[in-house]
Sequence to fold (282 residues):
Amino acid sequence: MPSARQEESELRVLTLADDTRNKHSRQFKAQPNILALPSMKRMSAISRSWWRRPNDMNLSELSPAPSYYGMWDAVARFAVEIRASDFMAEMVRRRDAFGSEGAMGAIDCATLYGLTRWVRPTVIVESGGYIGMSSAFILKALADGKLAASKLYSIELSQECEQGALIPDELRSASAGFVPMRGKVEDFLKRDRLPSLIDMFLHDSSHSYRHMLWEFRQFWPRLRDGGLLVSHDVQMNGAFPEFVTKTYAHDKKTGRRDAQRTSHHEWGRWGYIGFAVKKATR
Fold:
């Protein structure tokens, strides 16, 4: 059992106290991320203590697919490591010097890094790459995971912003996997300029309800089995929970999830990051 002092130390590491200026700081005051506090590390142990299989559980709920239960500990571990790293400190310094308006906050960057390290993607597409805060943490995760062949296709609509300006030089080169693309997501899809099969998609462009749902629906079919859909600023509207809800299929008798027909393995939210792990259905 960790001491109160250890828990307090971990809380300071994972809090937003010195990082409240994120993309929507003018509309929202950042709060401590209660889902990413010290309990993250012990989540699986805690969960096992209360989870019991009901006697009337539909056997179809017990999917023969590989368990994704351990991903929570893995993502949390990677997130804690990067949050306390020199790389994080340098990126926050760069972001604040450049101007933090519109850039992803540290907690969400740590979650994004952790998810990327866990899924180990080869092909990633992100919308709304902007000045490169999120891109930098994806590329850092690829470098730390020694995924030299991986590519990040980063789309940015604005002609005014310095796309990828915050990305360190060693991560920004084509050899490091960074592929900047300037224009509309819609146009790149129409012209078949994006890979047809991808391992990870990050939405961080227009956060309107309609556009978020549209992007989720466009890129979900392109994800491989086990691929990752990630969205920033899921608190802005109901698009993400609505999309995830529609990936469920339910058993008519029990009303519980039908694992065979549900099209996700796992989903969740930490901070302002929402994610869903794609499951290919027959």
